[in-house]
Amino acid sequence: MSFEVEGKLHKKFDTEQKTDSFQAREFVIETEGNYPQFVKFQLVQDRCALVDPFEEGQIIKVHFDLRGREWNGKYFTNLNAWRVEQGGAAAPPSATGGSMPSDDPFPSADDEPATQADDDLPF
Question: Where is the region Disordered (predicted)?
Answer without folding.
Answer: 87-123
